[in-house]
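hiii, so i know i said id send this last week but things got crazy w the move. better late than never?? heres the sequnce for the chain we talked about at the cafe, plus the structure i predicted for it. fair warning i was half asleep when i ran it
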Amino acid sequence: MFTWFVVLALLGVWSSVAVVYFDIVDYDSVIGKLTAYDADGDGDFDVEDAKVLLAKKKKPKLLNKLDKTIKAEIDAAEKLRKKGKVDEALKAFESLVQQHPQSPRARYGKAQAEDDLAEKLRSNDMLQRAINSYREAAELPDVTSDLLRAALKKRAERQQFLGRMRASLATLQKLVEIFPEDIGLKNDLGVAHLLLGDNKGAKKVYEEVLAVSPGNGFAKVHYGFILKSENMIVESIPYLKEGLESGEPGTDDGRFYFHLGDALQRMGDDSAYYWYELGHKRGHFASVWQRSLYNVDGLKAQPWWTAKETGYTDLVKTLERNWKTIREEALAVMDHHTGLFVPEEENLREKGEWGQYTLWQQGKKAGDSCRSVPKTCSLLERYSEATGCKRGQIKFSVMHPGTHVWPHTGPTNCRLRLHLGLVIPQGCRIRCTNQTREWEEGKVLIFDDSFEHEVWQEAASYRLIFIIDVWHPELTPYQRQTLSPI
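okay and structure toks below
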């Protein structure tokens, strides 16, 4: 039986008993060229083999009877691949497949080499070749169950990478049918449903997982995430909390800290900030207050800004000089086309009514909405920092008495948010971090909505403002052009 001492002796490396006793495993330190102890059939002794020999991982069986007869050739091709000689490795595996078309391991190696080459060349066509080869390897007769599992898992991962979510879901469904007892595969299947926006399908999968493995942390955080999205706030909290506390792989994700904290806040539980602080310490949030998840590092971060600090003084002056014109058009829309104001749909309200009329979304005009407010849109056309902000919106916002918006944060630190007061009765206020301010008619407030903010509308009549998102002033032209929309 292999022990730490056997492995270390084989490598000519010795360590203290304390290292063994406390199970501090540095697999990379025990890598060597011990081909005699190649446990996974990849041609050399590496990290994966060390894990097998130390009983940290079940030994995968990748070679069938045919593969074993050509193991030397497979090992030679695999060594080329592991050394980064991808073109040579692909040629070697292609030759093996040609000579031995029924060899699953040779075809799997070909798929891996194509996969590596796709990354090197940044080629989607080559990646599609790899996806096809993974399928071919899995479908060969006498393929070992371990190689079948590995090939189809890789296929599903690469399909997701190419954005082919339904194809990936189908591959994972097939895997789960073949390996129904594999909880990890079921968890992956749940994620595939979520990536398709199929929360109902994901919920069913995680309920099945938790029925047979009630302590599974991965399933718990994802199930809690789904419950939270269904506004089952109280029910979501124990699943999110226990899942995060499990520390299992795949649970340490900013979204789970974000939603657990948000759920706790909505219940009036200040322990939310414990989880926000922990999320910050784990590197998911810029700070306890600034909890956006789609960020560019290094941007100036402060909750409130002045026009001068943004560099967008011309835009601010234009808005403030023309605020009555903007208000007139907004009121006309409200009077004659009230239905154009769509209710807020992000589940941010505790109570009340809050409607929005969008002019630009993700850097593009929202349909023909500008036809109803042509002067307003004309004023904004020359300000690309606003109209071209792919991570923001330009919209009118009407909030009725009795509305309270939960503490929340925006999705990204790449924008700043301008609020132009249009109709501001007494009793309306906004908090950003620990500072609370009030709007004024004809004046612009500027804040970074990636910081926690909250709104109260306690007036006797509606509040109307104009919201303009602008690029963070420190973003370069290249970043503004290449950042993905949100």
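btw Residues 1-37 have pLDDT under 50 and may be disordered. thought thatd interest u
miss u guys!!
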